[in-house]
What does this fold into?
Amino acid sequence: MTEKVKRSYNCKDEELLIICALVLLSFKRDLSVFTGYTPKMNGDYVSGLEADLKAATELVMPETETLAKKLITEQLYGILDGLITPINYLTGYLELAKKELKISAADFGLKALRKASTVSDLEGALDGLRLVNANIQKYKPALVVQGLSEELIATFSTAGETLTGLKEDQYRLLTNRMQIVQENTGLLNGLFEQLTEIFKVGKILFKATDPVKLKEYTFSELLKQVRRKDKASTPDADAPAPTA
It folds into this structure.
């Protein structure tokens, strides 16, 4: 069994790539200063860093998988949005049959399902659909009398099946990518080693002369910057848990 390679960096893979891209911009701008200090850091050094960053980006955030995740998310949102009208219809049939059934929309699962669908809560919607579908079968005769159709019943059952499948697709993409990244941790560690080398020289060059540039070559400062931007501009990403 292959020994698991440990990361040499203490941040998310995506954060490392963003930091590397920021450093590359500063490094190319200040290349003459770096080359003046050590000829090792020349145009070829830049080209190597660019190539490694490109390879690492395709490893961590491949365009094909990014598109696949986007399409899955769009399908999820479309299904959840499409449940609102069926929920309204079923709630109406439940109201018409209230004397016979004596069960509230909340106990039926419709209230929770509506809330989850409105806020695009996948896990909440799946829980709600399981309860609603079970209650549809339990109370089907009384609801059919009020107008509940097989088509509407199928809408809820199909939604549950489709959302479960899409959730599994999401998880499959996530775990597959995590495995591939783990198997190629050496590439990311190598990228971090190059950054560390640039940071060391940058500190020598700018610590006493340019505190602004020094921050551009300080890992902790760059990580703070990346995380501030992420909190300000990036919506919460859905990270589905494995199906039990």
Observations:
- Residues 66 and 111 are 33 Å apart (CA to CA).
- The longest helix spans residues 150-183.
- The radius of gyration is 27 Å.
